[in-house]
Write a structure and sequence with these properties.
There is one protein chain. With about 375 residues, the chain is of the alpha/beta class. It folds into two domains: about 190 residues, 3-Layer(aba) Sandwich (Rossmann fold), CATH 3.40.50.2000; about 160 residues, Glycogen Phosphorylase B (Rossmann fold, 3-Layer(aba) Sandwich), CATH 3.40.50. Helix content is about 45%, strand content about 15%. The chain contains 13 helices and 13 strands. A seven-stranded parallel beta sheet has the order 3-2-1-4-5-6-7, with helices on both faces. Strands 10-9-8-11-12-13 form a six-stranded parallel beta sheet, with helices on both faces. α3 packs across α5. Bound molecules: ligand GMT. The site of ligand GMT has 20 residues, from α1.
């Protein structure tokens, strides 16, 4: 198939899923066209059958807000016509889904161009539910030729919030278990916690610092903070205040996060809301035990006490206690690390999930 993929090409989970999906599909023989405003961060342009089309948004003094969605729709229509795309697959509803609808209408006289929208989380739970975007998000879901959600929880949340009646197929996040794997020689000799996110308030990044301070009352642990965003400054400030700044390293945005994850023993994901938790899945594939919060779609990934830990949002005492338990009981850590790797491999590896997308594409193409 010839597939156009649009996503936020930055470090957010939706962009990562879209990029990895495109790469995996290209490896399986499909022709993939990324239509984005920048080269997606994990995209290796040297992979055969991968193409990248930049969306350029020119500005004009009249525009207070440059109309990115229109430039995107134009580029989508152009690429679809030039390369005879079979379908568009957009990740994150706003504004990609509406741009795809416009592109579909623009080329309608010449070709059929169905589009599939994958819902990732905050496009529904935060942004889409906001009154300013509610109606357009609902409309874009209803107009999509296919809709997927990354967890059952997100699917149910979408139906509850928007009252939409079209089918929403659940296709969970996936991980490449050949790239993300444990390498025991690389594991830190000092107990190491890791956090990986876009440092948005929803991630409760400050809780990671509080957990470290609590853990350090009994264990000489360090914390590696990977990523960047608005909560980085406040987190650095809090580390100073709590006297743990020498034990926290902020490394910013990174490529090849698997090389950092596998150094750690435990991943902290204390999020306020998480529709799935891709970072936790990547950690599990590397044999790193996730400690997360019992929210959204996280329980679809982590089984508490078996392959990770789940506690209530903001319960620093319990979150830290679970980390201490894992960092001081090597036998327990090994058992849960092995179970985490097994869950990633058996349920969420690319070999299982990518065919679900392929099958869904075929179904959508057959019915439009
Ligand atoms: O808010 C974020 O974490 C970014 C967001 C995105 O769309 O870029 O992540 C969401 O999509 C990921 C990939 O599908 C999921 O694993 C995350 O759970 C989800 N984040 C939230 O729901 C907060």
């Amino acid at each position: 198939m010839k597939i156009g993929i649009t996503c936020y090409p930055t470090f957010g989970g939706s962009g990562i899923v879209a990029t990895e999906l495109g790469l995996e599909l290209a490896n399986r023989g499909h022709e993939i066209h990324f239509i984005t405003y920048a080269n997606p961060i994990r995209l290796d342009p040297n992979v055969p059958r991968i193409h990248y089309h930049e969306v350029e948004v020119s500005n004009y003094p009249l525009f207070q807000y440059p109309p990115y969605s229109l430039a995107l729709a134009s580029r989508m229509a152009e690429v679809a016509a030039d390369y005879k795309l079979d379908l568009l697959h957009v990740h994150y509803a706003i504004p990609h889904s509406i741009a795809a609808l416009l592109a579909k209408q623009m080329v309608a006289a010449r070709r059929r161009l169905p589009f599939i929208t994958t819902l990732h989380g905050t496009d529904i739970t935060l942004v889409g539910a906001d009154p300013s975007y509610f109606a357009i998000t609902k409309f874009s879901i209803e107009q999509s030729d296919g809709v997927t959600a990354i967890s059952h929880d997100l699917r149910e949340n979408t139906i509850r919030t928007f009252g939409v009646s079209n089918e929403i197929r659940v296709i969970h996040n996936f991980v490449n278990c050949d790239t993300y794997k444990p390498v025991l020689q690389e594991r830190s000799t000092q107990p190491l916690l890791i956090h990986l996110s876009n440092f948005r308030p929803v991630k409760r990044v400050l809780d990671c610092i509080r957990i470290l301070a609590e853990v350090r009352k009994t264990v000489n642990a360090r914390l590696l903070m990977v990523g960047d965003g608005p909560e980085r400054g406040p987190a650095q400030h809090l580390a100073n205040q709590l006297g743990v700044s020498d034990n926290v390293e902020f490394v910013g945005k990174q490529n090849h996060v698997e090389r950092l994850i596998r150094k750690a023993h435990v991943l902290l994901m204390p999020s306020e809301m998480e529709s799935f938790g891709l970072a936790a899945l990547e950690a599990m594939a590397c044999g790193v035990v996730p400690i997360g919060t019992n929210v959204g779609g996280v329980p679809e990934l982590i089984t508490d006490g078996l392959d990770g830990c789940l506690e209530s949002v903001g319960d620093i005492g319990r979150l830290a206690a679970r980390a201490v338990e894992l960092l001081t009981n090597a036998e327990l850590h090994e058992k849960m690390a092995a179970a985490a790797r097994k869950t990633a491999g058996n349920r969420f590896c690319t070999d299982r999930l990518i065919p679900q997308y392929e099958k869904y594409y075929e179904e959508v193409l057959a019915r439009v």
